[in-house]
Write a structure and sequence with these properties.
Layout: H1 8-19, E1 62-65, H2 79-82, E2 88-90, E3 95-98, E4 103-106, E5 110-114, H3 116-128, H4 145-161, E6 164-166, H5 176-184, H6 191-200, E7 202-207, H7 214-221, E8 224-229, E9 240-244, H8 251-263, E10 268-272, E11 279-282, E12 285-287, H9 294-303, H10 311-316, H11 331-350, E13 362-369, E14 372-379, H12 403-408
Parallel strand pairs: 7-8, 7-9, 9-10
Antiparallel strand pairs: 1-5, 2-6, 3-4, 4-5, 10-12, 11-13, 13-14
Length: about 400
């Protein structure tokens, strides 16, 4: 996420007070004298030491923001701004990298650079405590209130950078998977809302050919699954529907598509079929009545086939099941498909309206080639005279491609 608030000045100011102090002497990180090995947080002899010029890097604290999957300001009232800083913990994926004179803090939202000569001990203790370091403990008894306030501001900086996160009042409010989704959504959906969406959502599964490992992955997110077989009416009330077909020509896909079109039902669904050779797809995403339907998809695929003799089969053919388990050929490859499928569904549920991975008609193909794994993104558009979803099918009226121009013509 790109945090549009300017925190660089705050970082510099905090580093100045921690590294040197307003009086020109070293702050609580280290004593002003290199040969002093007394308490790391406030040397009792510090007032008698002579003042020194700033050490290189003592005032170089700055925050480098790196854009994530989406950009935008953090919403008002988010946990980063309103949390009581007495209880925090290390956020998932946090990293701290130290050299002789600098300390790099990598969080979910930003990368922060601070001088190690002032903060090494503090960061070591903070990490050792799991991020829940009490500045009122005996360990910090020798520092004054100004220094304690400075360290609190450093911790605020780490919280804003995503290195720390507040300890929630409820144990389910910030599960690791919720924290990860929160970061991927750029902080635009609250963690509590993400957790609620996951726990209250239900994915209906039509068909029986489920990728191995899919159920267990969804269970870790807390998303309920409802297997309905071929009982299409049992999908009512579900958040979305996954049609697990034998292959891309399985008749269950055509039957399900016809059911939705005939009922004029609004549903979000996607299909899952076993890999074809060295490739598989996640999607397409279908929004009944608002996007291309599955018949549109097959017609588009047929129109791009280089062999004209195969096009009728690609568009209208039905598969004859051979009884071979297509998911049993390559366990690692099949597990990858199950995880990517689960990830796409979870992101759609948790970050709906924020993350653009589930736009109508979108699907991604993953293929192993001699150079490695390749990923391609595609989008299926509606067929203007689709025999299933187009109301203009069979009419002689011309199609209106540009509605705005038609109104003024």
């Amino acid at each position: 996420m790109l945090d549009q608030r300017d925190t660089s000045d705050v970082a510099v100011d905090v580093t100045w007070r921690i590294g040197i102090g307003h009086d020109g002497q070293r702050g609580p990180g280290t004593c002003c004298r290199a040969d002093c090995r007394r308490s790391a947080f406030g040397c009792p002899r510090r007032s008698g030491h002579q003042r020194h010029h700033r050490a290189p890097g003592a005032r170089t604290g700055r925050t480098t923001h790196r854009p994530r999957n989406s950009i935008g300001p953090r919403p008002e009232g988010s946990a980063h701004m309103t949390t009581n800083l007495h209880r925090t913990r290390l956020a998932a994926g946090s990293r701290a990298v130290a050299s002789e004179d600098q300390l790099m803090i990598v969080g979910a939202d930003a990368t922060t650079l601070l001088p190690t000569n002032a903060l090494t001990t503090f960061m070591t203790e903070l990490i050792a405590s799991g991020g829940d370091l009490d500045l009122r403990s005996e360990e910090f008894a020798n520092i004054d209130e100004r220094q304690r306030h400075s360290l609190t501001e450093v911790r605020t900086l780490l919280l804003d950078a995503g290195f720390l996160e507040p300890i929630p009042s409820t144990p389910t409010a910030a599960r690791p998977c919720v924290t990860s989704l929160f970061a991927r959504g750029g902080g635009q959906v609250d963690k509590e809302e993400i957790d609620r969406r996951l726990r209250e959502s239900t994915v209906a599964i039509v068909g029986d050919h489920i990728p191995p490992g899919f159920d267990s992955t969804m269970d870790e997110y807390g998303v309920a699954l409802r297997r309905v077989g071929r009982d299409f009416d049992a999908t009512t009330g579900s958040t979305l529907t996954l049609v697990a077909a034998y292959d891309e020509y399985d008749s269950i896909l055509t039957q399900w598509n016809t059911h939705l079109v005939s009922q004029e039902a609004e549903a979000v669904w996607l299909c899952a079929v076993p890999p074809a050779g060295n490739s598989f797809s996640v999607g397409p995403w279908f929004y009944s009545g608002r996007s291309a339907c599955h018949t549109c998809y097959r017609m588009r695929r047929a129109s791009t086939d280089h062999n004209s003799e195969l096009r009728p089969l690609v568009a209208h053919g039905s598969s004859l099941p051979t009884g071979i388990d297509a998911f049993g050929t390559d366990p690692a490859f099949n597990q990858m498909q199950a995880n990517l499928l689960a990830d796409a569904i979870v992101r759609h549920i948790a970050l709906d309206g924020v993350f653009g991975q589930a736009e109508p008609g979108h699907f991604a193909t993953y293929e192993y080639t001699l150079t490695g794994l390749t990923v391609e993104n595609h989008r299926i558009l509606r067929v203007p005279r689709c025999p299933d979803c187009s109301r203009a099918h069979g009419t002689g009226h011309p199609q209106v491609w540009f509605h705005q121009e038609a109104e003024h013509s």
